[in-house]
Amino acid sequence: MWKAAMSEEVGKALRSVVERVNQAAARRPKTLPAVPPRLVAVSKTKPPDMVVEAYRQGQRNFGENYVNELVDKAADPLILSSCPDIKWHFIGHLQKNNVNKLLGVKNLFLVETVDSSKLADKVNSSWQRLRGSSTQRLKVMVQINTSGEQSKHGLPPEETVSTVNHIVSQCSALHFLGLMTIGRYGYDLSLGPNPDFQMLISRRQEVCDSLKLPVEEVELSMGMSTDFEHAIEVGSTNVRVGSIIFGNREYPNSAANTPNPSPGPSPAPSPEKTSKTVSEEAAKKMQHLTVSGH
Hints:
Layout: H1 2-26, E1 38-42, H2 48-56, E2 61-64, H3 67-74, H4 77-82, E3 87-90, H5 99-103, E4 108-114, H6 117-131, E5 138-143, H7 160-170, E6 174-180, H8 195-211, E7 219-221, H9 228-233, E8 238-241, H10 243-246, H11 276-286
Parallel strand pairs: 1-2, 1-8, 2-3, 3-4, 4-5, 5-6, 6-7
């Protein structure tokens, strides 16, 4: 009974989110690049059964924040046998000592959180070694700290162009796919467009102008459960949605997934780890936009 109920709930929630993604894309101005938005289902802390159910419903892109959890989940026999075409996105803070472990993940599709030239060099050299004779490049995004919060990881915005240039010119095993931000939690859209999203859009334009890259070839990963529709409307091509697909998360022992904590100023909250209050308020604001699954 539990599995049947879970299956129905995940399927219904996923269909609703997909519909909302499509509706938001249809509302985008025609002046924006016509890149269909990619939905990344954030499955952190959720069991393999839920991943498999979302996969059965047609979902292919899944995001994880912790290297150890992704390694375990990607190697789970149920997922290996049931989800041959799964595409894993790593969306958490990546430390250099975990790079080799992460790059060994089967079906790793995209690392969204490269936040320094040094980390890019490490990922590049590790991928060159691990891929052997394969010429396949690893897709990466550069994470920007658009809100300037000390608790957030990511590059200072003014270092965006130089870091992207380093990846494009010096990291031959990497394929630069775009820019990513988490942004400030709980922004009130009644105040106007989200300034973090606007910052990422402007940095993309700088990158494209400086490096002579087509705008439509530089993606934007921005938007989560509480604001993904607005993100898509202003140009996001990659949204990371978890709680409204899989339900609220429990964090029984978050330290188990961070065996080597970063010595930074303070632990950065993972993408999507918003307070229940913010999530509930945002959910109420967007309730009229929700389309139930068919």
